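Appendix B, Record 12. Input sequence as logged:
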Amino acid sequence: MTGGSLGLRSGSYGSLQHLQNGSFHFQPQYVGRKPSKMLPSGAREKEKIFPLRCRFLCSTRVGMLILVVFASLVFLSGFSTVNKDAQESNSVSITQHQHISQIPYENGEFGQDLPYIFPGIEVEQKDVEGTVTGSGENNRHHPPPAIHHLCKNFAFPPPPPPNRKRIGPRPCPVCYLPVKQAMASIPSSSSPSPLLKQLNYVHEENPIKTEPHGGSEFGGYPSLKQRNDSYDIKESMTVHCGFVTGSKPGRHTGFDIDEADLKELEQPHEVIVASAIFGNYDVIQDPQNISRAAIKNIPFYMFIDEETEAYIKKKNSSALVSSNRIGLWRIILVHNIPYTDARRNGKIPKLLLHRIFPNVRYSIWIDGKLQLLVDPYQVLERFLWRQNASLAISRHYTRFDVFEEAEANKAGGKYDNVSIDHQIEFYKKEGLTPYSEAKLPITSDVPEGCVIVKEHIPITNLFTCLWFNEVDRFTSRDQLSFAIVRDKIMAKVDWKIDMFLDCERRNFVYQVYHKDVLDHMSPPPPVVHPSPLVRPPPRDAVIPWNRRSAIIPENMAGRTPARKNPPKRGRGGERRSGSRRHRRVGPGFRDNNSS
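Logged structural output:
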């Protein structure tokens, strides 16, 4: 309750005529009365005085004065009560806002508003007492829990049901802390990595393929024995994790990056946001609703290949010339991409960000088809720090079983059926079973892997390394290999992945169609501009014609226009001679019937 609301409520008690500039102004006027010469001594005289008192109290001015005083007392008492309650309990206001963004066209300009609204719940704290800070002697790897978290009492509503206009999955409200509060929640130290403390990576100049399904040269052709040994988690480990050749990731490794960009990627950062577009597969989406603090402190990196760069320069020649930026995205050009499949190339930065950014603490990965709608600090607080998790990913919106996902991939033509069947049969021999309630608290075996929120510590880096090795060895459909890697690691150490709801993911990212779909969609209707004014013709080129003037082209000016016979009138089509009724003679013409 605020002061403004109290004022509205106090005004509901009556119509106050002296309310000016938000305050009451009144001038009491006292009625002069002659003193009584006699004191009332009987009941009759009391009865005479009583109506006089009632008449005095019920007069307009006095009644208004009493009403004003009464309303003021009510206002002051209510205001003091609100202040007391606000001091005792931390003042919190929960507001629901709507994220409305725009779909950029291929030329970089923004077009019509998005057809869907993304509701989010943002909690605002008006009293700074009890704020959790990111430093202090009592802080552990995560900040100590606040006495009362601002989102503690947030009741999670179910996602809205589908309707005729939108039958697919819908976003649901999410409780985010304000950006300043989210920044204050950054842990002062890294999360513990169970058992694994040091993770090293295989380096080999000339890897040799020894098995028919041994992956690629970029991945180093790990054998099945090396693959199995990588799940034997120890305090110190060395595993295959891409970038096998070359002196360091990005330099002569098959995913090559310019030296100036490599220096940029080696800079230390607390948080980064990364995405990629290869094979000109998507259209770059500029993030929305990003705070000034995030723009200042968090870099946004977009990896593209030469094909995508050529398309961008073709559509907008000024892009990538001066600062290598498009909106908030810092463009990183990649040369010598190792795979012919653009989707498999996209898995390199998606799963191996810790190798490309060796000095980064937290990362948020979003696929190139997505547009970020919520501040990165708020996303990290909600899905990592509040959950005491080191890796978060959303579950699939409708499928929970790997075997069902494989059949859906074959039905949708996502990959060739023989390769999918080979991968699933291999996992079945390793013990993968259909998902059931027996796997609880694991809620799903199939992720919606377009968003990954990650803390870069040895155990999470190992997970994404081994996940990438499966993508390198088998199909590029990372949904099929997620569960087998997770289960093998969880069987060795006490570690878990936070799999949040898909409707929560849709709250902070908006999914745009792939570029090939957008190319086949009908373009937006053209803008109709008003036609330019026609240059006025010469005077001699204007002739009368049936009550309107016709404009004759200049090449026809000077010629005698053919005169059309007027329509016949009267009975039988005859017309009385000499009749000038309903005739108008224009200038420059001679009437043959005039005398």
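Residues 188 and 198 are 20 Å apart (CA to CA).
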